[in-house]
From TrEMBL:
Classification via Pfam families: PRC_RimM (PF24986), RimM (PF01782)
GO cellular component: cytoplasm; ribosome
Domain RimM N-terminal: 11-91
Record domain Ribosome maturation factor RimM PRC barrel: where: 104-169
Domain characteristics, as noted in the entry: The PRC barrel domain binds ribosomal protein uS19.
Name under which the protein is recorded: Ribosome maturation factor RimM
Amino acid sequence: MIKLQDKYIEIGKITRYQGNKGEVRVMPSTDIPQRFFELDSVFLKNADEFYELEIEYIRFHKQFVIIKFFGIDSIDQAEELKNSRVLIVESEKYLLPEDSYYVDDLVGCKVYLSDDTYLGKVIEVVDTSGTDIIIVKGEAKEYMLPASREMIIEIDLEAEKIIYNPIQGLLDL
């Protein structure tokens, strides 16, 4: 049974309607989009609303996941779901291989350079279809850091700390 106090993780975002039967187009934020096929329902969150919708069927179209929800049968109804975050209960997330992390786990981590200089906190991770970009909000400005294995020295989720060693010239400190 799902409780309101459960923790949720984002697995995608509805970008628009698809077709005229109430389907929605979801940009997955998971590296394993096939995981959508295992779901019977998802939670949607936008602005002030949070609710659960049951999935009628799922298919893929290019890089998108197309979802048809029960009770959403028109373009107008599907359009109302635009920009909703698609969530699952955290307990349903996959166990990841070593040295792989969920974006939600990285947001809020403090970022330090290898010389122990505090850079700021992770506020977002942007999927670029290549090397992801970590957005770090420092005291004076924001930094866009490539999430490159060569530059990330350590990620300690317990301590909420990331040690980063940028290439020369990447940061203007």
